[in-house]
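ok so i was messing around last nite and threw this chain in just to see what happens. nothing serious, just curious
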Amino acid sequence: MEEIAAVYARSLFEAALEQDKVDAVREQLGEFADVLDGDRQLQVFFFSPYFSTQEKEEGLHRAVSGAEPIFLNFLDVLVENHRMPVLFRIRRDFDALWREHNKRLPVHVTSAVELDEETVRHIGERIQQQTGRQVELASSVEPDILGGIVVRVGNQVLDASIRNRLDTLRKQVVRSA
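result:
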């Protein structure tokens, strides 16, 4: 399913890029996925094999109005190929392509205590300087890390938490024994 989602996401992204509609399609894909995620009856309708492709297409065209034609055509293709259940993964992959295209880098800072806004912003600025990419910064508090911080930059993790240091020390002691 992961590969199918990646193929559909890339196809939609490239088609939207050709028509200079990437941001609009991303927004509509997100809105549609959020509505579908929040409505169990819509999920049953679009995901169930009990409804025909024609019924799903008619329902889709009644439910979605004012959308970019490219996005509506994309939804039609998903319905025709019985791939609507993959929509949430497609959204995730499309968002990743959008971030890459716009040189966006998700950064998440986790700390044991609330960090002041300036400290978090400084961390984001340093990462932006080092990577040359626009940083999408988020932060959270997780008391379980005991102290220090954990910084997730894209798919990489810098774990400078006390919990990590204690785990590393424990593993060294076990190996030595």
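not much to say yet. The mean pLDDT is 89.
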